[in-house]
Amino acid sequence: MHAPQRHTVAIGGLASLVALGTMAAAIAVPAAPQQDAGPERSAQLAGQIDPAKPRNVILIIGDGMDDSVITAARNYEYGAGGRFPALDALPFTGAMTTYGLQAGAGPDYPIAYVSDSAPTASAWSTGRKTIDGRISQGPSAASTTPGVDYETVLEKHHAAGKRVGNISTAEITDATPAAAGAHISQRGCQGPADTARSCAGEAKPAGRGSIAEQLVDNRIDVLMGGGRSRFQQATTAGPTALAYAQSRHGYRLVSDAAELDAVTSLSDGPVLGLFANGNLTPRYRPLVATAAGAGGPDTTCTPADRGTQPDLSTMMEKSIALLDNPDGFFLQAESAMIDKQEHASDICGAIGDLAELDETVAVALDYQRTHPDTLVVVTGDHAHSTQIVAGNPDDGVQRATVRTADGDPMTVAYSTNAVGSDHTGAQIRVAASGPQAANVTGVIDQTDLFHTLLGRAPSTLPGSGTPGPGTPGPGAPAPARPSASVLAGASALSTKALARRGLRVVVAAAGATTVRVRLVQRGRTLASRATRAAGGTLTLRTRKATRGPVRVVVTATGRGGVATASDTVRVSRR
Hints:
Layout: H1 13-19, H2 42-47, E1 56-62, H3 67-78, E2 92-97, E3 100-101, E4 111-112, H4 117-126, H5 153-159, E5 163-171, H6 175-181, H7 192-198, H8 211-217, E6 222-226, H9 228-231, H10 241-249, E7 252-254, H11 257-262, E8 271-274, E9 294-295, H12 312-323, E10 329-335, H13 337-343, H14 347-370, E11 374-380, E12 387-389, E13 398-403, E14 409-414, E15 428-433, E16 442-445, H15 446-454, E17 483-488, E18 492-494, H16 495-500, E19 503-510, E20 514-521, E21 524-531, E22 535-540, E23 548-558, E24 561-572
Helix pairs in contact: 3-14, 4-6, 4-15, 8-10, 12-14, 13-14
């Protein structure tokens, strides 16, 4: 069961941690007193504006991720006053419109105020609007009539000599990952057999072929997700799409987390990870809303059995390691089950994939700290229908209630359909960190994001002599050095427990702007998460630990320098 979490706002030093005593299964910390307003942040934000063109670009998509489902997931995982350590820490945040077009005679196509993932993903991938179901092709008179192929940002980066990656918790041939590296009139034409049935005029040899064939024809260096069944379909030439990928393009197939872990470089060819026949398994088991109301004030989300599948943060960590090179890379990652579980009115499934997205963002930001020429962008593709409601019997068509980290009930409703739920047309969050990240602020459109992902011509910042957050003014005292302390919730545990339940950790920090906690064994980082600048309580999980000591290391970085602290846990095989 998901234990209620309590996150302190500030704990000063190790003495305060010791005062907490031995950690119980659930840690309860009294409500913090009202705090002061903190420092004025203009100089800090100004210091993070970097007009340089990024060398590396990491785009992280939460499919169906709007502010409502972010809030619901945050309430559940961290409480109403909590924050996602990575997602909510991105310095530049804006809003993004997601409308598309309808099929028609053109050239002025009617507006589609509510779009699916195909045209929305195509919008940031190509910088152009299109119609529902369309993958990086222009609009046309009918959904069955192909449009003009539009070159994508992934293809442009690849043509410029950068390595490229495309990972998802959905089928890798699904709409969002497909839009990065394929061009087809209907999103359902994922495998060769699908294409022969529904997009026959675009099948090989006359056309580009199915989405599966196009993704490998683009020689995407790292391609991972679900969708094994699409690659098992036979091509028009006879062999399966998987056999085609291996024989024609030298792809190496990995089928589970252990095989992925064993891949250490791209020197032996590109990597194709197919970890499920369909979509990957969400973190939490379903809690499906009903007209009568599902769950209750004591209901919590329970972990699902994900077998040997890697999670998105693991795929992100491996992808970055493989793609990293002096010429730079472009990587798109999708946390897809937010949307798919919202379609099923499954609040726990959506919450779990959003929490996983936050951990994935943390991995990207961890890389960015040592590679500051990396742009990290996090957004959704469209809004959805999760609503946080008061919990009255008439509050929505379908309802579900869970107990949040505050220990209080939260009710969500889905009202677009009698059963299941659908997209909505609201603007969504877009946030970023790194070079040219400031371009996401204000209200932008998805087509504008294309230009930021591609890299804009650098501008010149005004007032270059103005002191920034790292440059004290004349006579100003030097910033204080950060302090940090950490306490593990157990002195010993098994590899199985570390993988399933994880290790609870309490962190305290002061004078820091970023705080990161890592599990380290024999010099290797097994898991990594960011927490708030003052610290907090979090859980670290990993399947990578072996028998022996594992260090819990906290690193606090601030204007006055860097501070580290550690604790040690002994891991057994059972």
